[in-house]
Amino acid sequence: MTGALAPTKPLTALDRCDRCGAQAYIRATLPLVGGELLFCAHHGRQHVAALRDKGAEIQDESARLSESPATAPDNER
Q: How many helices (H) and strands (E) does the chain have?
């Protein structure tokens, strides 16, 4: 066993922020317990540093917010 986490699937419009219910763009996978927290970009910016300090693996897709519709993947249009 390598200890590496399995690749995570991309976040979709169905994934919602655990704080406010907006679309999630950040996933924090917690060490040891393997649970995950989902955050919108706003709440992710508030909590990601503390989660990273505690060893969480962060998947940040908030750059998708600045993509134009022409460059977004087909399943995001």
A: 1, 3
Residue 23 near residue 45, CB atoms below 8 Å: no
Surface-to-core class of residue 26, CB atoms within 10 Å of its CB (0-12 exposed, 13-18 middle, 19+ buried) = buried
Amino acid letter, residue 45: R
Residue 38 to residue 52: CA distance in whole angstroms: 14
Q: Which residue stretches of the chain are H helix?
A: 41-53
Place of tokens 């699937």: 9
Residue bearing tokens 């995950």: 36
This prediction's pTM? 0.77
- DSSP class of 39: E
76 pLDDT above the threshold of 70: no
